[in-house]
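In this notebook, the sequence line spells out the residues, with the fold written below as integer tokens. This is how one looks.
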Amino acid sequence: MTLKALLFDLDNTLAPEMANYERAFTAACRDAARRHSFDSENFRAAVFAVADELWRESETFEYCARLGIGSPTSLLSDFPGERPEFAKLRRWAPVYRARCWTSALRPLVDGPVEGLAAELDAAFRAELEGHCPAYDDAVAALDRVAPFYSLAVLTNGPGDVQRLKLRASGLERYFSVVVASGEIGFGKPDRRMFTTALDRLGLSADEVITIGDSLERDVVGAHNAGLRCIWLNREAGARPHSVKPQYEIASLNALASLLLEVTQGGRAS
């Protein structure tokens, strides 16, 4: 059947995740680090370590893990949504964020740190929008394929943060459909993530190809849903014997030519 749509992962496929968080954190903490003479990289490591520890101890950790929501994303979301777990998260998150920041600040700053913690918490959340560049190859690749296919994003994460990333990276305009795990209640590799995208596109599995960087989430999830998948292997990682994507590329620069081969009955890896 004719290929009609492409289903893209977001984090570490179209835009870097941790590198962008680190950019936003550095911008948020630059003045405070200078005023109080601490190293911003060590401070970031401390904040993120506390965040990870507290996140794993939280009542909703297992639920969020199924949605692919972790720290430090948990420091950035307002957790919108109607599900009971998200209502709990909205009540819990402000105290959680305050503990992360104050715990990391106390060894570095003399005197009370609560005010500075609140300042940096707000700054980190605000700075994300200005520090979410896409990968260098993403815009060019999307420009090449957009005239020929419908484009959708399928991403694990809270809807507010993931949609902000798309907007801030300049990629939002390419996508007619965005499916975020935090908005629908299940995450990759759950096949329902992929079938939700198919339903919104109004297409069948054999009319769509997925593109993603994660073997465990994107490739396995696509396979579970009966979809073909292109593995974006930016880091030249080894492919385990247990996971076999149909296609593999090292850069999105190779996407258009691969799709041409696929539509003409060409190679599978």
About this structure: The chain has eleven helices and six strands. The longest strand covers residues 150-155.
